[in-house]
């Protein structure tokens, strides 16, 4: 293994591949930071460039794009409160408030460092335990996926700060919006009202751009041309040492990062779920385990750590089923699968035997690209923070144009452009009504997963719902979901019971 890894680093450290990877990481960061663009789009657009390259150079470029774009989403998520990619949605929850408190550089530094650590952790896991973990993930069927989705949906209550009713309404509305279009199993049109363009439903990127980016533009536009600049824009970089946070804070967040890395890795291994779910799930768990959960959503670096560690840990997780079983873990690795096939390489169990040097070249490329990402984003801190010096009446139209370009680039349809405006108005309504956006996003992401796997599970068991409880893994997750709901109800009733008891005693 060490000999193969040495050969891999020897190939990656050639001048040609190093320059390609530097360009790939830089372009990936830009694609991740611009709302509407994504890692999938970056890899897809650059895939034709690899036609004339060798397998080592071509695949090294693609994984560099993957790493750069996944991490780049934190830049706009923190500075503009607009997630650059779905994997950075949860970064907004605490990164945005930290920026408003004048701690934008600190939030960026935390995000960059723990993005790097999450990526390195997942790559090491990919190198040592990929075949075993991928086999476990492959054993998951519709029953297990349904139970996981239900368990994750019950966690909406954790993000419903202030009003449980508003949180549940937002989550239910997200599930309802996800049902628009052709049903996943029967192919029946639902809630399309005769509009053929609604047959495909709403894209995740469309919803995300609208609910976060366009809604934020509308909200900031209320202040007019003379909008007050954020405190973060006045931070002097001379006062910032290193990445902007202390070694003590780093040590305090290590348990959170370790837990979030494991969540991101586990979710990444499961095909079809992706980092858009893992960063939200790890954020919820971090909030539940925190000593002061009420500070989450108000500017706690733990929220940034949880989100960024998990979404980057998903890189290695998504690569595991791709390389060991030939099954892509998410949309980006599906494009990477095309990159393998272009060069006549079939990912799967025999890949490690027939293409050993190439496999370890990819491992080396992932490690080197992670280090490149760390240094590029560190030295780019000063450049990123300069974005806040741009007057809002100039910056906001540019952001809106980029959002429109990103939405149109999804499938070259004006319908997607109108969709982001629709969800922008809806997101603005959420802000005015004091409703949390996170439950809506969770409902929209997990609703289709729960519905599709419920129907598939019932088809496999001839309509017998009891099969979900006889399956050990599914029964465990459903039991945890029920226990969590009962605990939330008990927590809500307990204060009233305590007051009633005091009244009776007096």
From TrEMBL:
DUF112 domain span: 18-442
Residues annotated as signal peptide: none
Species of provenance: Stutzerimonas stutzeri
PANTHER family assigned to the protein according to its UniProt record, in alphabetical order: TRICARBOXYLIC TRANSPORT PROTEIN (PTHR35342)
Domain of life: Bacteria
Segments crossing the lipid bilayer: 20-47, 59-80, 107-133, 145-162, 168-188, 200-221, 262-286, 325-346, 358-381, 393-411, 417-447, 468-490
Alphabetical keyword list: Membrane, Transmembrane, Transmembrane helix
Statement: the UniProt record of this protein carries the keyword Transmembrane: yes
Protein name per the record: Tat pathway signal protein
